[in-house]
């Protein structure tokens, strides 16, 4: 393989990527890396200010749409609008989410349900709206941003662990269902990555921060671009025979002791 061919196999030229929760944190990191790899990227979020700031930072390859993915009935129109603006969606990144740090006995049904709506139901809904176009084109990638808490036990995040574990089941089932149509489905399990969500989760908890770093063999938090380049790989021709997988990007934390 020539150097030019090796470079091209990791490119996303001609792809249109829809990234939910794309205005900050991991979503912003993935948007940056996918745009750098040649994709047209549409970031979606509830608040226009961070989306506009992200677009200004990332440049002309990035568009944005203000939308709440838990407004399920509006998502078909959102996908259609994006397709008219940027072209048919060929990459969907189910990234938007909310966090809940709370003891299991204090977690209410309503709080648990909010996480299910945002992570599980909204991601399924987004996937079912982009899949017809991908199946017709016999080309597409759906990426779920799971978490290492889908692989290991951690206190005070029972609802978050449950919905991220549901992602893993969705990846397995969906990947088996659509592989014959040229659509690949994978997940990334981030460890502790520098982001607003991480800072909120660790706020005022120095002992927990120290414990996390002590259990991470690389002894540091990751950066959003660490997730971004992993996402580029999974959606690129380099991973053309990879589907149904969960890729940990966690500095070894899920394997460390």
Brief digest:
The protein has nine helices and seven strands.
Structure, described:
The protein has 257 residues and is of the alpha/beta class. It has a single domain (3-195, 224-248), classed as Rossmann fold (3-Layer(aba) Sandwich), CATH 3.40.50.720. It has nine helices and seven strands; from the N terminus they run αβαβαβαβαβαβαααβ. It has a seven-stranded parallel sheet, with helices on both faces. Helix 2 (25-36) packs across helix 9 (224-235) and helix 5 runs parallel beside helix 6 (158-178). The longest helix has 29 residues, at 109-137.
Taking all Cα atoms into account, the compactness measure Rg is 18 Å
H-E string? HEHEHEHEHEHEHHHE
How would the global form be characterised?
globular
- Estimated structural class: alpha/beta
CATH topology: Rossmann fold
* CATH architecture field: 3-Layer(aba) Sandwich
Biggest β-sheet description: 7 strands, parallel
- Give the end-to-end Cα distance, rounded to a whole number of Å: 39 Å
Proportion of helical residues? 40-55%
* Helix count, DSSP H or I runs of 4 or more residues: 9
- CATH class wording: Alpha Beta
Kindly report the name of the CATH homologous superfamily. NAD(P)-binding Rossmann-like Domain
**Average pLDDT figure:** 94
Please give a handful of descriptors for the protein shown.
257 residues, alpha/beta, Rossmann fold, 7-stranded parallel sheet, 9 helices, 46% helix, globular
Q: Secondary-structure blueprint of this entry?
A:
Blueprint (H helix, E strand, L loop, with lengths): L2 H6 L7 E5 L4 H12 L3 E6 L2 H11 L3 E5 L8 H12 L4 E4 L14 H29 L2 E6 L12 H21 L4 E8 L5 H7 L3 H9 L9 H12 L10 E4 L8
Parallel strand pairs: 1-2, 1-4, 2-3, 4-5, 5-6, 6-7
